Structure to design on (332 residues):
């Protein structure tokens, strides 16, 4: 695997295949997640990038610079540590103390007394002159955080797996809820009942959703209940600044929700969930709605599709999904 900083302001990740003959961009999870500054006078910074087996999980640890917004305010470039298992990504925190860092490397010693160490080059000393000095920092707290995050990911995987038992577990009984594939394969984010103060927290510690509107959203054991007109939630997967944890959503994704409705008093189509490109009120690329007549409706790129087969009934749970393929092919 290879990571490179590109002129378009994104760090691209490539995987090798064909017995080492070619490199292919890893669009699945990691490529273009992390940003880097653009411009002719920008100096590239070498980052730490290692693989390791921690808590019986194969992971990658990455150190990448976080650039201050205002260089005129004695801003310093500091390195942050990131953890990924090639499906989920979590920011662990800064690792370069108060130094202005220029390049970094990571070292990991496995075993019962495992250690994680970061080596980084200082850009300058207190006199503002170039400094060739190297700093070594033992990352005890950060390694503990890495293990805590991995434990959380495993617990959430176990919880989600219970939502859809494998076919073998349902033999001799109804197979309506059986899964032929592992439900957690490729599952990047999961919103359930962790909601408070207007924030609907991702169980995988990724991107949180924001609940807004005049009406109240009520936490339930396995989700959120929106009551009244104007209650809604936004999962801002494309609004995290230079680091886009869900950058893959620009190309391919499947968004699945379990929903149920009470009595519907409004006329016309009522939006249930949708995907909006470019943010800031940009046009919706795909929207799934329901109406008072018990019918589903889909709007794709501003055009209504033919009326959907089947319908919905109050107080009945339904699983609905929005799918994007190859950046442009959407369905619901």
């Amino acid at each position: 695997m290879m990571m490179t900083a590109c002129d378009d302001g994104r760090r691209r990740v490539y995987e090798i295949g064909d017995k080492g003959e070619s490199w292919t961009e890893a669009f699945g999870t990691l490529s273009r997640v992390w940003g880097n500054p653009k411009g002719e006078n920008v100096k590239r910074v070498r980052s730490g990038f290692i693989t390791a087996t921690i808590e019986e999980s194969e992971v990658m640890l990455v150190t990448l610079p976080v650039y201050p917004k205002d260089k005129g305010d004695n801003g310093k470039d500091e390195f942050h540590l990131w953890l990924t298992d090639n499906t989920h990504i979590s920011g662990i925190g800064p690792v370069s103390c108060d130094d202005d860092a220029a390049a970094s490397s990571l070292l990991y010693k496995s075993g019962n007394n495992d250690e994680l160490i970061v080596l980084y080059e200082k850009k300058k000393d207190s006199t503002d002159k170039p400094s060739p000095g190297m700093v070594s920092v033992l990352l005890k707290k950060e390694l503990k955080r890495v293990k805590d995050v991995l434990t959380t990911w495993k617990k959430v995987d176990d919880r989600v797996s219970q939502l859809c038992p494998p076919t073998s577990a349902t033999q001799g009984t109804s197979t309506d809820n059986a899964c032929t594939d592992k439900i957690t394969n490729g599952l990047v984010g999961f919103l359930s009942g962790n909601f408070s103060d207007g924030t609907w927290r991702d169980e995988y510690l990724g991107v949180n959703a924001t609940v807004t509107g005049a009406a109240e959203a009520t936490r339930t054991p396995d989700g959120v209940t929106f009551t009244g007109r104007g209650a809604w939630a936004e999962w801002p997967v494309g609004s995290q600044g230079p680091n886009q944890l869900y950058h893959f959503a620009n190309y391919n994704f499947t968004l699945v929700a379990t929903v149920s409705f009470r009595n519907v008093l409004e006329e016309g189509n009522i939006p249930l969930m949708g995907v909006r490109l470019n943010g800031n009120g940009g046009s919706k690329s795909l929207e799934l709605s329901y109406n008072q007549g018990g019918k589903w409706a889909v709007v794709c790129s501003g055009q209504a599709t033919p009326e959907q087969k089947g319908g919905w009934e109050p107080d009945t749970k339904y699983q609905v999904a929005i799918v994007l393929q190859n950046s442009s092919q959407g369905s619901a």
